[in-house]
Amino acid sequence: MNLGDRIKEVRTSSNKSLTAFADSLGISKGTLSKMENNKNSPSVTTLVSLSKQYNVNLNWILTSEGEMYIDSSNDSEFYKEKIRYLKEKLAVLSKKLEEEVDNINEIVAE
């Protein structure tokens, strides 16, 4: 089983359409299709997002070794990592929003 097959297995086992799965990873449907067909390699960001959002073992995704899913039952470290990840995403979105507001203010001021 190759990397594309493993990505597709995560998607199909999650009962997600190509579009829904791609959206959840922040990539286009076409990009996901190319990854699943081994015509395009996923970025590190996409792999980490896949691992975090779907509780997939990153080692399994990359090498096919180990269990597909991370056992997160009663694992406070898992939830702490999820919270850190969400905080990082929120900080990025907040910064982008601030930049957009600044841009709008500059345009209005002209």
Draw up the topology in text.
Blueprint: H1 3-13, H2 18-25, H3 29-36, H4 44-54, H5 58-63, H6 76-109
Helix pairs in contact: 2-3
Strand content is under 5%
What's the CATH superfamily of the largest domain, by name?
lambda repressor-like DNA-binding domains
The beta-strand count equals: 0
Q: Return the domain count.
A: 2
Mind telling me the C-alpha Rg? 17 Å
CATH architecture field of the largest domain: Orthogonal Bundle
SSE run = HHHHHH
Largest sheet: none
Describe this protein's structure.
It is a single chain. With 110 residues, the chain is mainly α. It folds into two domains: 1-71, 434 Repressor (Amino-terminal Domain); 72-110. It has six helices and no strands. 13% of the residues are buried.
Concise structural overview:
The protein has two domains: 1-71, 434 Repressor (Amino-terminal Domain), CATH 1.10.260.40; 72-110. It contains six helices and no strands.
What tags apply to this protein structure?
110 residues, mainly alpha, 434 Repressor (Amino-terminal Domain), 6 helices
